[in-house]
Amino acid sequence: MAETRSPGTLDAWHEQLRRGGLELAILLSLTHGARYGLEITRHLEAFTDIVITEGTIYPILARLTRDGLVTGEWRESAVHPRKYYRLTAAGRARLSTMTASWKAFAAKLDRLVAAAEGV
Q: What's the CATH class of domain 10-116?
């Protein structure tokens, strides 16, 4: 019998893990300069195989903009205007803190995994 998508399923856990890391992933994708939304999604997919839809990325980018972590700027292109997002000083500071927190948390879990595996 297949698992349903209730809070206790493995699929639900994977989804929560993914959602928890998306803000960090988006901020990391802006580390080396401005990118527009589709460019961010392509970068994430190319480097991590994280697939993120327009319905997910743009609300996150809007929130990051409201929070002052990124700024958006419309630019003309050969196809149509695109909104490019870049990290602000506050965004770089948040990214630094988030990256350190992620590494510390991952290290703790790695220690637990190693202990459970008897390594």
A: mainly alpha
